[in-house]
Amino acid sequence: MSPPGPRSATGLRPALAGTHAACGPYHHAMDLARSVFGDRFVAYCINSAEGQLDSVILSERQKQAIYNLELLARQELLGDAHSHNALIRSNALQYIEAAQTSLPNALREICGGEVAREAGGDPLEDALLHVASDVYPATLFPPRATEDPSPSIFLLVSGAAVFMNRSQKQIPRLILQDRALGKLFPEAPPADDYDGQGFDVSSMIYWSTGVGSTLQLCNVASSLLEGVLRRTEYGVTPSEYFDSTRKALKDIRNLADKKRVATPALVGLSNVILSDESPIPLKGGVIRPFRDGDNHVFMDSTGVKSVLEVNFYIQILKIEPVASGESLAGSDSPWDSLQKELGRSQTELRRRIDLERLAILLTCDEVPRAPIAVATSIVNPVATGHSVSFSIHHSLPDQQLPVGIEAAMAGRLMEWSATLAGNPANLDMGMRRILSAVSERFDPLDSFVDAVICWENMFGTSQGEVSFRVAASISHLLEPSDSEKRKKLFKEVRDLYGIRSKLVHGATEPSVADAQRHRERAVEIGIDAFKELCTRPDLLALDSSGRGILLLIGA
């Protein structure tokens, strides 16, 4: 599809009288448009430099553009900004049929500017990129305040800018003709004969995340563009935005082929505070401050102070056709046959999250603290909306002290993240238990028991006296060169192990003070042992019993 020629401004409001943006009737119009839509969006529409809006002398066509933006901006004055803001932005992206583009692009063109457009490698990609060009100005809106309720980004891309777009009208047929995407709708009409809008063609998609969702043919393009916007940073260049659109199409095609596709899993952390606004790259993702858009991602972001993004993979497990008007109620569930895949996916996600949580725990030098995950949302490039799971901590008051990550800690956090990425799966139980002991248990005795289970996971055995092997292994690992310290630590670990064994077999519980003391020391030993073990490739290569043998007899 070749880029269209110059467009008419037919259908746009005429300009008001006036001569300068900084004086006369345009002073208020410009100020109102900038306050609602932001300088970057306004500058784009009037084909001006963002930093020159205070001094620019407007041409007659730029005045016309400002007048159109002012009319839309006035809507915010008519009601509650929380409920109107997303709708106002959606209206600002409306498709102008006479201009054959969205309103911002039409305004930009009558002001003498060019609209960035790129051709695709095939008809479907070409049509999607054309629609994406009309939606691109949505990336120029300023970030919303984090306390603002979750705005529906879907309003921005599913309104007139997409559904009324001429390029969109051919997309349903192109999807059915596509070798991969046609598989998403197994009982659709013949592609070459189809001329509908896609409202009459649906499928039920079962995902490896444990979610089942209905996908309508008419929503594929808007879902794709919604996902691109959701992951797009403020102020992205057109070229970067088009590249993201191409990647999203490639991902959806791979998903339709039932391949695994990488996507972010966003984890809301309630007790991690970053001193620097810059994201910290980790081996398996990134940790960053809470930002604009996270309200929408988590739906209820109460208590979320920072976000851990981990690299994850999703996959379509099953596709079922849904006839128009057919109800899914009472139909046989396919989940029983998909339990193996679901379990594998859930285990993988939990492990990826816990490895980064453990990296943060091991970075803390003083009081051990671990991140508390209160909500997890997996970005799906096809399904509209969000699938969010909440932990029990989401509805509870803060029980843990905050984990402050100073700029000086970032380097060590990155090192621990890289180190833990190579940990064997046979340490996962110990990892989960030490994290639970530090951040998730409310009772100190439960925390104490979890910490000792962590010891067992590292050095336990099914043969011989377990307490002796665990205590000896830990004391040799942490005190390899000082025999007196090693003997003292051996006795301490064995005594704590004995307390734990008596406790779980019905002995009288210790006092609150003793329970807290046992908990703190067991956690400290567990963390120290984990740190040392994770730097010993020779030990990591073995199972728990083999580690003890190597430490005790060197073979």
How are the SSEs placed, and which strands pair?
Blueprint: H1 26-37, H2 39-45, H3 60-73, H4 81-92, E1 95-96, E2 101-102, H5 103-110, H6 123-135, H7 153-158, H8 160-163, H9 171-177, E3 202-207, E4 212-216, H10 220-230, H11 238-256, E5 261-269, E6 272-274, E7 280-282, E8 285-289, H12 294-298, E9 306-314, E10 316-322, H13 339-363, E11 373-378, E12 387-390, E13 403-405, H14 410-420, H15 428-439, H16 444-459, H17 466-478, H18 483-504, H19 512-533, H20 537-540, H21 544-553
Parallel strand pairs: 6-13
Antiparallel strand pairs: 1-2, 3-4, 3-10, 5-9, 5-11, 7-8, 8-9, 11-12
Helix pairs in contact: 1-2, 1-3, 6-11, 10-11, 13-14, 13-15, 15-16, 15-19, 16-17, 16-19, 16-21, 17-18, 17-21
Protein name: Apea-like HEPN domain-containing protein
Pick out its properties:
alpha+beta; 13 strands; three-stranded antiparallel sheet; about 550 residues; disordered N terminus
Average of pLDDT? 85
Q: What is the distance, rounded to the nearest whole angstrom, between the alpha carbons of the first and last residues?
A: 69 Å
Widest beta sheet: strand line-up: 7-8-9-5-11-12
Instruction: Report Rg.
Output: 29 Å
Q: What's the helical proportion of residues?
A: 40-55%
> What is the tally of beta strands?
13
Number of helices: 21
- Give me the oligomer status: single chain
- Which residue ranges are poorly predicted, with pLDDT under 50 across at least 5 consecutive positions? 1-10, 15-24, 145-154, 324-330
- Main sheet summary: 6 strands, antiparallel
Described by the principal axes of the CA atoms, the overall outline is elongated
Structural class: alpha+beta
**β-strand amount:** 5-15%
Protein name: Apea-like HEPN domain-containing protein
Organism: Streptomyces gulbargensis
